[in-house]
């Protein structure tokens, strides 16, 4: 099947909204710093007897190291990727005991925001309720190390997925040093697509060379006919690349045809598309690499690389399909009134006669007023499948969740997207690209319908 075609969940003209995902660039309102200022919140932790220090039988070597190995060290290993914080030794973990208790209890860490009871996902590094309780108890009791001689066996550490094969490496055209004068530097770089024949991308892995300052990366695929639009943006800015916040720039026409090719957030690894499927790239295309740098991570330069697994034989049809209500995008029907909590809006799409496809992953997107969001399928037979639900939305931790088992959609099924916001400001909000605006959007990797097993 060499000709991409659409399962037409949307009217054709509106099928290209992934551009709006550019807004996914993390908010400018600053990072939590990692200086451990959470102490007050946990000072009266459980286990304290008679007002004394909390006590515990749990120790690093016997109980905690196996949990950290699976759920923390992929990001907080000796190389210190997660905010520069190394939690791989009992000494370092003990120094951070109180911030650890606070972050784990509040479920801020590990940053896995999908609801437990929605679906199951590949590479799940979340903590069970039992492990969460153990970590909090141990950390509040001063993070005792215990006896290394009787250390529990460590389960295999979770490490982000990698590609089994790299056919093409595309790096930023230059090494870039973000402006240290501002905490957030959003910048887009045009990258040539070098192949002279049709190609199908079957896996991607974005690798910032300086994870201390790279906060978020989104890769957009620009078809050949729109390349000139982006070259003009690049040429208009004297420095390398060009500034961009809401997406790769471009005009209304080019925004209709561009596609999302990949994304990276801290702890992110390779995205491997389902066997036999891929995203088609035509010769003469370009990529726009949208970088969000955060200079609080220190001064320095970066030259992000994108590893790609590419096939030159046609692959099964696939697309990164966005879901939202087109009326919202046009400014109708997604009002979020000032000073109002718990405002919800819902979008439903009923699969028509020709709509047979399978969901393989899902990501949700709102801005900072977002409280919760969900994407689910109401099947024609009355059953329901939750694809992704986030009960405490965190703008800083948007992630694509790869389903363990694909979910088929057949005619008569309804796809339901729901978002809830708290608007504590004095301004009404609606769809838009600014920081005071909002969005309600899901993106999904879809293919032709999938065999059940
Ligand atoms: C997917 C990557 C990732 C994983 C997994 C992860 N962290 Fe983090 N963590 C980060 C990053 C990045 C930061 C830097 C601050 C931020 O961006 O929120 C951070 C910050 C922290 C902080 C300091 C800031 C705060 O929020 O209190 C603590 C403590 C922490 N992590 C503990 C943990 C523990 C304990 C685990 C495992 C149970 C864990 N983290 C798992 C990425 C991760």
Question: How does this model look, in words?
Answer:
The protein has 453 residues and is α+β, with helices and mostly antiparallel strands. The protein has 3 domains: 17-27 and 161-316, Jelly Rolls (Sandwich); 43-150, Cytochrome Bc1 Complex, Chain D, domain 2; 324-448, Jelly Rolls (Sandwich). It is 14% helix and 28% strand. It contains 8 helices and 18 strands. It has helices spanning 39-42, 60-71, 90-95, 97-105, 129-140, 227-235, 252-257, 326-329; strands at 168-171, 184-192, 199-207, 214-222, 242-243, 259-264, 271-272, 279-281, 286-294, 305-311, 318-323, 340-350, 357-365, 370-378, 384-390, 401-409, 414-423, 441-448. Strands 1, 3, 7, 8 and 10 form a 5-stranded antiparallel β-sheet that branches. Strands 5-2-9-4-6 form a 5-stranded antiparallel β-sheet. The chain has a 4-stranded antiparallel β-sheet with strand order 11-18-13-16, with no helix packed on it. Strand 14 (370-378) and strand 15 (384-390) form a beta hairpin. The longest helix has 12 residues, at 60-71. The chain is globular. 42% of the residues are buried. Heme C binds at residues 31-32, 34, 38, 68, 71-72, 74-76, 82-83, 85, 87, 96, 99-100, 102-104, 108-111, 125, 127, 266-267. Heme C (HEC) is lined by residues 31-32, 34, 38, 68, 71-72, 74-76, 82-83, 85, 87, 96, 99-100, 102-104, 108-111, 125, 127, 266-267.
């Amino acid at each position: 099947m060499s000709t991409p075609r659409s399962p037409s969940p949307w009217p054709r003209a509106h099928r290209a909204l992934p551009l709006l995902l550019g807004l996914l660039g993390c908010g400018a309102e600053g990072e939590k710093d990692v200086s451990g200022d959470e102490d007050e919140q946990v000072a009266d932790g459980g286990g304290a007897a008679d007002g004394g220090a909390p006590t515990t039988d749990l120790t690093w070597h016997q109980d905690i190291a196996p949990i950290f190995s699976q759920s923390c060290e992929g990001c907080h290993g000796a190389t210190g990727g997660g905010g520069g914080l190394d939690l791989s030794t009992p000494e370092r973990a003990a120094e951070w005991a109180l911030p650890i208790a606070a972050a784990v209890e509040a479920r801020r860490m590990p940053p896995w925001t999908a609801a437990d009871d929605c679906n199951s996902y590949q590479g799940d590094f979340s903590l069970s309720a039992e492990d969460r309780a153990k970590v909090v108890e141990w950390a509040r009791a001063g993070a005792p190390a215990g006896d290394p001689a009787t250390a529990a066996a460590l389960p295999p550490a979770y490490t982000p997925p990698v590609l089994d094969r790299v056919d093409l490496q595309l790096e930023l055209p230059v090494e870039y040093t973000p402006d240290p004068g501002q905490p957030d530097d959003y910048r887009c770089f045009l990258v040539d697509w070098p192949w002279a024949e049709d190609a199908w991308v079957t896996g991607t892995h974005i690798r910032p060379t300086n994870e201390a300052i790279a906060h978020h990366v989104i890769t957009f695929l620009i078809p050949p006919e729109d390349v000139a639009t982006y070259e003009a943006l690049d040429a208009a800015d004297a420095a390398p690349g060009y500034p961009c916040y809401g997406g790769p720039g471009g005009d209304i026409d080019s925004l209709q045809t561009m596609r999302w090719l990949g994304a990276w957030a801290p702890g992110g690894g390779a995205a491997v598309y389902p066997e036999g499927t891929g995203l088609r790239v035509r010769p003469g295309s370009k990529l726009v690499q949208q970088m969000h740098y955060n200079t609080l991570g220190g001064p320095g330069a970066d030259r992000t690389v994108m590893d790609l697994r590419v096939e030159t034989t046609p692959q099964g049809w696939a697309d990164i399909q966005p879901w939202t209500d087109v009326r919202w995008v046009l400014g109708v029907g997604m009002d979020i009134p000032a000073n109002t909590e718990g405002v919800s809006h819902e979008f439903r799409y009923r699969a028509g006669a020709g709509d047979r496809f399978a969901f393989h992953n899902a990501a949700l997107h709102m801005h900072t007023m977002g409280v919760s969001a969900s994407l689910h399928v109401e099947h024609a037979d009355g059953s329901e499948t939750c694809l992704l639900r986030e009960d405490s939305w965190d703008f800083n931790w948007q992630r694509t969740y790869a389903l363990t088992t694909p979910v088929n959609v057949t005619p008569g099924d309804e796809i339901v997207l729901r978002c809830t916001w708290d608007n504590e400001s004095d301004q009404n909000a609606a769809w838009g690209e600014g920081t005071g605006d909002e969005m309600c959007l899901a993106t999904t990797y879809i293919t032709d319908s999938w065999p059940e097993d």
